[in-house]
Amino acid sequence: MTMEGRNLGARDIVTSSPFLRAKGPRRSPWRRAAFTSASPGTSQGRAWRLGRLVDMEAEPIRRTYTSQRLELSYVVWGDEAKPPLILIHGTRDHARSWDRVAARLVDRYCIYAPDLRGHGDSAWAIGGQYSIIDYVLDIHALAETIGRAPYTVIGHSLGGSVALLYAGTFPEHVSRLVSIEGIGGMWRRERTPAHLRMRQWVNDMRALERRQPRVYPTIEAAVQRMLEANPHLSPELARHLTIHGVRPVEGGYVWKFDNFTRAHSPYEFNMEDARDIWNQIRCPILIIFGAESWTQRGLPIDLSPFHDCRSVVIPGAGHWVHHDQLEAVMREIDAFLGG
Q: Is residue 33 included in any domain, yes or no?
């Protein structure tokens, strides 16, 4: 199996894979345990792999890279001789949220999906501050670690916003871009006066400092919470997202994400800056919305800063469009990517 284009500085976790097998230095037991799909409980993890959600023969390889002194995690599906594709998840999500999308694209691409800082198996930010510019920096560090530009990039929600800003900042690094629900939130926040944003942020950060993560006594309890928060999900998909989204603690399980990711910086990109960056994007763009998502309520979304852009609204889908209507989303993505 060819390993052309691979950056040998990346640290790998070995998994069984017919696509590629990578070796790396041994990790401490607690880090290795945190990186396995069985981490929520050994027997449950094994059972879930046997009844896997998608028709793929292998778990992805997990690797790590460094950005701003943080050790960040990402997974890799497929043959690294194939064109590179980066998948970027949304807030309080994780890389394995992309499994079904990856299964549909792995025959054409080598797929790289990071856990953003503060999410999944990646390190939490020191001090608890998370800004979109930090995520853009982390994606650039990942792209440099992989060393295979230009990339096709697909992002959801926060990940879709990050993808757009990255493509405008480094247009030479992105060949095609799909942003799923990646614009609406930025438009809403620009209407709040600066002094109110600052006060809200200070109050939120102080409240989060006192907040303790909720402990779920069983995996099933966490799955039920996932279903309550996301009623469009099937029980099978909710379980998959939960298995990869929790870690064991005394008395049960907690979500892996840092609660401080709930706070919004008072100084996010304003729309003048965003438009300037979006205007620098030179690759084709597909923007996907869910018809039942909150992004479809309120202000209309102006796509005029984009040069080569097509948008589509998927019926019967909420904010997690690729979970709610996978087939419809993949038809749009396949047509856009030329599949």
A: no
Query: Containing domain of residue 280, as a range?
Result: 39-337
Per residue in 143-179, pLDDT (tens digit) is: 999 999 999 999 999 999 999 999 999 999 999 999 9
CATH code for position 55: 3.40.50.1820
Longest dimension (CA), the chain: 57
How far is it, in rounded angstroms, from Cα 189 to Cα 193? 9
Burial of 247 (0-12, 13-18, 19+ CB in 10 A): middle
The answer to whether residue 131 sits within a structural domain is: yes
Note whether residue 160 is domain-resident. Answer: yes
CB 229 within 8 A of CB 91: no
Other Cβ atoms closer than 10 A to 196 = 10
pLDDT band at 272 (very low <50, low <70, confident <90, very high): confident
Q: What pLDDT, in 10s, does the model give residues 40-68?
A: 333 334 333 434 566 555 789 999 999 99
Residue 67, domain member (yes or no)? yes
User: What sign results for the dihedral spanned by CA atoms 141, 146, 149, 151?
Assistant: negative
**How many domains in the chain?**
1
Count, residues in the chain: 339
Rounded Cα–Cα distance for residues 3 and 273 (Å):
39
Phi then psi for residue 65, to 5 deg, are: -145, 170
